[in-house]
Amino acid sequence: MLGATQFFAGAFLATDPPPRVLIRAQILYWNAGAILLAIAVPERADTLIWLAIGLLVAGLAAWAAAIAAMRRSSLRRSPWATRWYVSGACFLGLGMVAGSLLARGVPWSHGDLLGAHMSLNLAGWFGAAIVGTLHTFFPSLTQTQLRFPRLQGVAFIAWTGGVAALAVGSAWAVAPLALFGWLGLCAGAIALLVNVAACLHGAARPLSLPARIVGAAQPFLLAGLLFATVAAIEAGPMNALTGSTRTTVGTLLVSGWIGLTVLGSLTHLLAVVVRVRGGFAARMPAARPRLDGFIAALATIAIAALALSQSLGLEGWRRPAVAALLAAYAFLAGRIAVLAARVLLRARPSL
Known about the structure:
- By secondary structure, this protein is mainly α.
- It is 81% helix and 0% strand.
- The protein has a domain at 206-345.
- It has helices spanning 2-13, 20-43, 46-73, 80-103, 113-142, 150-171, 175-202, 209-235, 243-277, 289-312, 315-345.
- The two termini are 27 Å apart.
């Protein structure tokens, strides 16, 4: 995700990539820190844990320096190009603090520190990066403009405020604040979904496969958040993601929203790389309305059926839904593998 945010920020700012020394520093520090942390936590080696956290902080600092360098070199002033990513990085930094306390086994009797850690890392960093990117990336997929630009500000305030409220409410067991956090995330998702729907409505037909897949993924974000919010109201925010609710929300957000968004985005981005490395001689993959529509519909129906089978106990739906979802995923993975192979074959040796 660190690399992806720099790729999109560079594209939005229309500037060169960050200096190679900063890219190499991020790769070195982040990977070394992650591997060391995975080794140190099970062994309860405090010294190694602190060293791993230090490496991760250094990697995040190198990322911040890279973003700053791209902003300085850009002739375009576009605050939204990095605003989502910077706010997400701040949440990630706080999540690393909470994670360090968890890794060292520091007692925390105030509330659910693990819940706060997950909120900051997943909704704060990962979620903000995806939601923010979609405001520019999805209009490019559909070859349209963002229909309601002001809604991006609404989405930003609602999402970041929701993450902060959910994290603080979880960490200190303030139920009303945690519930407000879930509602804020829902409001941010609605603001995003309005613009996604407007882009789909204004797009020329036929839609490309990536546009169909990424577009189909976005309702699952709102569905997952609404399901968690209802559970938070009924069982309390501290129990919003327990039992069958956790499985259903996981299906909607991970298999539905993240899975389809990532697969659809990769399908488009790899095709762009193939075209660029071919000197723009190659064309983008042509839309195949019937096949593309079938794959998007198959994935959508499969995820919805799987989530319903988990929440309502419809065991007879589970196997067909899983089989259909795997078939759709396999098709998209195959398309990505073919494009990745073409990228590698067109790779230019660096001297």
